[in-house]
Specification:
This protein is an alpha/beta fold. It has helices spanning about 10-15, 25-30, 40-50, 65-70, 80-90, 95-110, 115-120, and strands at about 5, 35-40, 75, 110-115, 125. The protein has a 5-stranded parallel β-sheet, sandwiched between helices. The longest helix has 13 residues, at about 95-110.
Length: about 130
């Protein structure tokens, strides 16, 4: 497997047309194939919508899967290998969503599109 794996903030900013994406990240998303979206991003978005941290995504939840299909993004499920690797990753980074993304990127050979420099500390390739 190769391609890009979108961090949740990169996915949200792409879907909302937000200019907070770097020029390099936006160009890579526009041109790359395949682009992967982790199931953990759906979990993170739904959680943050529920607690009021992502009001801009609330209306988009019903069409989330359709939006991914329209963009041509592929969904990456979380399996046992990903979960075990995420739990075993070294360091103090406590965000379980970031740990899953890093583990998936490492196992699947993907580059994470993220502005979070802490994800690179897990040893995966990042693009921003």
């Amino acid at each position: 497997m190769d391609g890009l794996l979108l961090d949740t903030h990169s996915l949200i900013w792409w879907l909302l047309g937000n200019n907070r994406l770097s020029t390099r990240a936006a160009a890579a998303i526009a041109e790359a194939d395949p682009i992967w979206v982790s199931a953990s991003s759906a979990w993170e978005i739904a959680t943050k919508v529920r607690i009021g941290k992502l009001p801009d995504m609330a209306e988009r939840m019903a069409g989330y899967r359709r939006d991914l299909e329209l963009e041509g993004f592929r969904t990456l499920a979380i399996d046992q290998r990903h979960a075990l690797r995420a739990g075993a990753l070294p360091g103090r980074h406590g965000d379980p969503f970031d740990r899953i993304l890093a583990a998936q990127a490492l196992i699947e050979g993907l580059t994470v599109v993220t502005r979070d420099p802490a994800i690179a500390k897990f040893g995966c390739k990042v693009l921003w």
